[in-house]
Amino acid sequence: MKITDIKVIVCSPGRNFVTVKIMTDEGLYGVGDATLNGRELAVVAYLEEHVIPCLIGRDPHQIEDIWQYLYRGAYWRRGPVTMCAISGIDTALWDIKAKAAGMPLYQLLGGASRDKVLCYTHAQGTDIAECVDAVGAKLDQGFKAIRCQTGIPGLPNVYGTGKYAVTTNAADDAMPREEMWSTPKYLNYAPKLFEAVRNAHGEDVHLLHDTHHRLTPIEAARLGKALEPYNLFWLEDTVAAELQEGFRLIRQHTTTPLAVGEVFNTIWDARLLMEEQLIDYIRMTVVHAGGITPMRRVMDFASVYGVRTGCHGAMDMSPICLGANLHLDLWAPNFGIQEFSGYLPEILDVFPSAWTLNDGNLHPGEAHGHGVDIDEDLAAKYPYQRAYLPVNRLEDGTLWHW
Ligand code: GCO
Ligand code: MG
């Protein structure tokens, strides 16, 4: 088999997506997600100018060699733009291989280790009462695990809450919006949220929380300790992800399980965290990690240290990325949970998907390949819109982690 053509399709059905489509001389094609939220066109240029010309005529079955060629061969390794581009290619190649084999992708990975994939969804409110109600609504929909985020008195527009909770491209995102942050206000308020949610909804639901890299290690340690009575499934992204050593201090002080890694893009970003068992869940995901080939390695490496998986799955990972993640989730012996924030209906129309959601669990489906496609005609009706993630400042104006 030979690669005859590779297209990069950019569309914005409510938010921007970059999709790679690889065609072959045998008529089989595969698709992969290459979306990097807020930096989409940098990945498009990387693919069109530097990757695609090298792959025309190559055998699409040589997934490992193509991955090494694009990663090692570039000399300039790592980084989100590079790794999203490689991921688009790698995911499309696995899609082709599984279609050629006449199997759903999880069979090629080693088969299913479970019947269904537990997922967590999001509940948020501008205040605690609203978030408690939102948790109730998600429980009514059948979800078993719920990430809770609330606005904080005195701080407008806190991440994951209010108007900006749904990660669509809002009209006012054409330039970076500014949010405001205060760690003291947050640390005093966050435990009250979980006290209220447990009081209202009991002990059975798994509760998660995301701090979006905004704390220092000792602040994260304090928060983890304060949340212990509420028995969280995980506390996510407490400190800046670059500071792997910072987790040593957090770990010494709290038994709240820790998750990190949505911004990592290679296994080396998480090596120390896993080797020293400083985390419980690794949040890396197919699109930002460079594809299925390296994600399988991350998952295997994590399993050696008792670390479980918790793939990032917000709406800016396209349904293709979710589909690919779900095949890995169904296979991985050390699977933990899959994030699922859901999609707008127009996104699901553009990306016809074999995966299903039932009673708080996902399944990748039995379609050959990874089971997600792109409707190119429909995609063309939703042109790209420049959109940024927000930036964050402390109350005195200091630029802070977002
Ligand atoms: C999550 C994430 C997202 C990210 C978003 C950035 O845990 O789902 O923190 O909300 O902010 O994916 O593009
Ligand atoms: Mg997060």
From TrEMBL:
TM spans (from-to): none
Coiled coil regions in record: none
InterPro entries linked: D-mannonate_dehydratase-like, DgoD-like, Enolase-like_C_sf, Enolase-like_N, Enolase_C-like, Mandel_Rmase/mucon_lact_enz_CS, Mandelate_racemase_C, Mandelate_racemase_N_dom
Domain of life: Bacteria
GO biological process terms, semicolon-separated: amino acid catabolic process; carbohydrate catabolic process
A GO molecular function held by the record: mannonate dehydratase activity
Segments forming domain Mandelate racemase/muconate lactonizing enzyme C-terminal: 128-257
UniProt family annotation: Belongs to the mandelate racemase/muconate lactonizing enzyme family. GalD subfamily.
Protein name from the UniProt record: Bifunctional D-altronate/D-mannonate dehydratase
